[in-house]
Design brief:
The protein is 42% helix and 14% strand. With 339 residues, it is of the alpha/beta class.
Length: 339
């Protein structure tokens, strides 16, 4: 190939590379500007009516509470993007069954104040959850947790088993099917530790124009991503510092099974309380095979499969999910567990 032609090809490739980098930089800049414009709400002053804040180790978390404080406590913890406002229907049913219902926003989601250290490891999140439960002066609680929210719940359960009366896990994302590692960051996880990468990525992911599309990606019954559910998920995205806090949490999504307490498969059989599993039949994020595997690891467990539902059975099949939740709570209520 003539030298002149080689040089022209190299120049063309260099130009396209430069244009590509400039395009990426422009998208990142626009995403950051959009997030800065959107995230203006002050967390405490704009928090939902009748909610309150409690101390949670190194931060404060928002809680919404229903029912008599003398009744056995059921604590609700959301998954990615989840917050206390998602649980209202199921909290009301829980109260009707004779419990008190408490939904907690764990940072970086909902109205919780971001963690000042930026440490969102599941072990640290478990400590925050236990601290919030202590602040609420609760003992022997039932915890209902969805998706990745189950990871800090399991850490809390292993750190302080006497605090837990029972668990109800909804499509939990625990990563137990993966190989044991030393717990170090994967390459992509290490890359996301850099704020100049994770901040623009998160600014894009938290853009409210994408909420409906992202919600549809994790559920099977696409039409159930209704405007009402989309608005609920969008509500906390207007709060100051939301995308920054989520960018600090984002690498934890990619954590491999290491040496945290909840990574030890044999430890699950030692849990001294029942664990109820509710799973979407068609879940592609945490497939049903993971639920069957988890049930085998547990000494006292049941698995209820919600037909047709994917990763969000509480929004895809709300009636069936409510029935499954009520049945699980009723079983606990009639057993010695809640006596």
């Amino acid at each position: 190939m003539p030298a002149a032609r080689t040089r022209s090809i190299l120049v063309l490739l260099l130009k396209w590379t430069l244009f590509g980098l400039l395009g990426v930089a422009l998208v990142a800049l626009l995403a950051l500007m959009s997030a800065a414009f959107r995230e203006r709400g002050e967390r405490v002053s704009s928090s939902p009516p009748a909610s309150s804040y409690v101390e949670a180790l190194d931060t404060r978390v928002l809680v919404q509470r229903r029912g008599s404080t003398d009744a056995p406590a059921v604590v609700f913890v959301g998954g990615t993007g989840g917050w206390s406002g998602l649980w209202d229907r199921y909290m009301r049913r829980t109260v009707d069954l004779g419990f008190q219902a408490i939904a907690i926003d764990l940072p970086p989601f909902g109205y919780a104040l971001p963690a000042p250290t930026g440490d969102y490891s599941k072990a640290r999140q478990g400590q925050r959850l236990l601290a919030a439960i202590d602040s609420l002066k609760l003992e022997h609680v039932v915890i209902v947790a969805h998706s990745i929210g189950a990871a800090p719940v399991m850490e809390a359960a292993f750190q302080n088993p006497p605090k837990i009366r029972a668990l109800i896990l909804i499509d939990p994302a625990l990563g137990l099917d993966g190989p044991q590692t030393d717990g170090s960051d994967s390459t992509l996880q290490a890359v996301l530790r850099h704020a100049w990468i994770s901040r623009p990525v998160t600014a894009i992911l938290t853009n409210t124009h994408l909420t409906a599309a992202l919600l549809r990606r994790v559920i099977t019954e696409k039409t159930q991503a209704t405007p009402e559910w989309v608005r609920l998920y969008q509500q906390p995205l207007s709060l100051q510092g939301t995308s920054k806090a989520i960018s600090e949490w984002l690498p934890e999504v990619l954590s491999r099974r290491g040496h945290a307490a909840s990574d030890n498969l044999s430890a699950y059989a030692t849990l001294p309380f029942p664990v109820e599993l509710i799973w979407g039949e068609t879940d592609s994020i945490t497939p049903l095979s993971q639920g069957k595997h988890l049930q085998q690891l547990l000494a006292d467990s049941s698995l209820v499969v919600i037909p047709r539902a994917g990763h969000g059975p509480f929004l895809e099949e709300p009636d069936l999910f409510e029935e499954a939740l009520a049945a699980a709570l009723s079983r606990l209520q009639t057993s010695s567990t809640l006596k």
